[in-house]
Amino acid sequence: MKKLLLTLPFFLIVLLGCEEKTTAPAAQPPSNLVHTITPSSTVEGLVEVTASASQANYYGFEFFDNGGSQIIENPEGKASYQFTESGTYKIIVRAHATFDSYIEHEDSVSVTVTIGSGIGIPTIGYTTPLSYAGYNLVWQDEFDGTALSNDWTHEVGHENGWGNNELQYYRPQNTEVRDGYLVITAKQEPFGDRQYTSSRIVTKNKKNFKYGRIDIRAALPQGKGLWPALWMLGKSHPTTGWPACGEIDIMEMVGGPSATQGDKTVHGTVHWSDNGNHAEYSGSNTLSSGIYADEFHVFSIIWDQNSIKWYRDDIKFHEINIQSSELSEFREEFFFIFNIAVGGNWPGSPNGSTQFPQIMAVDYVRVFQK
Fold first, then answer.
1. Tens of pLDDT along 10-43?
2. Among the listed residues 207, 254, 227, 204, the one whose alpha carbon sits nearest the alpha carbon of residue 342
3. Distance in angstroms (rounded) separating the CA atoms of residues 178 and 278
4. Is 180 helix (H, G, I), strand (E, B) or coil?
5. Residue 252 annotated in active site
6. Which of 176, 252, 326, 333 is catalytic?
7. Which member of 166, 176, 247, 329 is catalytic?
8. Distance (Å, rounded) from C-alpha 295 to C-alpha 263?
9. Which runs of consecutive H residues, i.e. helices, occur in the chain?
10. Can you give the pTM of this predicted structure?
């Protein structure tokens, strides 16, 4: 007896093997978006933006500044941003139901930033003379032009955290010379694989010095995670590795509210190689009132073949004897480095209290030798 084989059409097999699928409806975008932009009456360049909308889960605020933009997201519809230069800037406000479902408004704001206020540059502070008995002024930069002199070059990139797990990307765009000041700006903005940018400038292969009195008049940034520094490395670097090349930190500050390592305290330090081991010796100076961002201070060293002495506003706060053979690094030539680092092993990362952008303003650097 023959068996009959029932063969179903292919298209029917396909239909029987498929389950009915449904597509979830797309999220509906919010509605009735309303926003306000309010320039601060007390801090120049700072603007505050608020927004509200129906059916919004969170808000995005995009601030366009100097060819880039920064996005701040907030579930409560609030954001603030501080511009460092006068101008009219675009701002986009978005109300999101989901990442892809949103409505937006485009607006603009005009801000005025003048020297001596807001995030700008203080108008007061300590200063030092152009001459000292027994010394000649051998090099100076008063930053009176509109660009860095040929004595400086930029170090660019992130160099895997520069050996300190730092978070910034150094860019030339974060350096400017204006109104008689060098201004280095640290910003919270994505660039490359980093979320912060800043600048680092050096006199390497341009200006190297051995001994003398060095005065640097500067106003510093403030905030957790900020690490401004005015310092020197041995001319032999990088042929001679660190710390064998020697390092002289004329001034470092670890930003934040702490009294011993914060906005009111600066450090003077040397690093060297002691029989192949890293050695350092540090001292600090803490203001009795206020912080180092309030006004200019002059950070100085007096350096000869016997010692290095550190001063803040002509107040001596640290000294090291460098006559021993282990400290021979400090009887060689050194070059300057000015920078603001963000984050790193010493200051830690910025937190919610840290406001960006932040600046370090340098009025002058002067080198006197006997």
1. 444 444 444 555 555 678 999 999 999 999 876 6
2. 227
3. 39
4. coil
5. yes
6. 252
7. 247
8. 12
9. 10-17
10. 0.71
